[in-house]
Amino acid sequence: MKIRVIVTGSTGMVGEGVLHQCLSHSQVEKVLVINRRPCQLTHPKLTEIIHSDFSDISSIESSLNDFNSCFFCLGGTSIGKKEEEYNKLTYDLTLNFATTLVKLNPQMIFCYVSAAGTDSSGEGKFMWARIKGKTENDLVKLPFKKVYLFRPGYIQPSKGMKNTLIYYKFGSWLYPLLRAVFPDYVCTLNEVGSAMINSVIKGYGKQILEVRDIIQLAK
Hints:
Layout: E1 3-8, H1 13-24, E2 28-35, E3 46-50, E4 69-72, H2 83-104, E5 109-113, H3 127-139, E6 146-150, E7 154-156, H4 166-171, H5 175-181, E8 186-188, H6 189-201, E9 208-209, H7 211-218
Helix pairs in contact: 1-6, 2-3, 6-7
């Protein structure tokens, strides 16, 4: 199976790592990145669209038809944000984007990067977890061929990436210890990217992928 994938968030740490996994994988034949600013990367498989407003992608719809998967890695921290602002940046943005994609291609597989600790019940005390949970709940209602919800915890960054967050750079030496002590919460960025690709190639028996599922599917 040849994968033609849309990747969002490639100017962030997770999206950049996932993009590099896609470009190096033999079964990925075409990658479209949609960014607010250039990813500063060239590759024969890669096309880039610069688009400032992810809440409305109607103006670029004609470029989104020839794809069978989307790896949605766009997101941001809730630190310093009120609930209304974080809801707009997380729930509204993601659902608006996904709703347009499913209209264009309901046979698409949609992979969403969520987070460990996400609250699907909507009743938890953490604002970010409730909003992530609401986003997950409404994504699975869309008539895609399949929706996979990835819930990584600590992600060990890939070497050589430009967008690694600074606290990951300084804390990466702890990775072997963290993986040994907290195996349910620690994976690598390469494993996240590989698991996304394999979700399209192989499929997976669960719709919500916790860290152990991500590691298993990456193999």
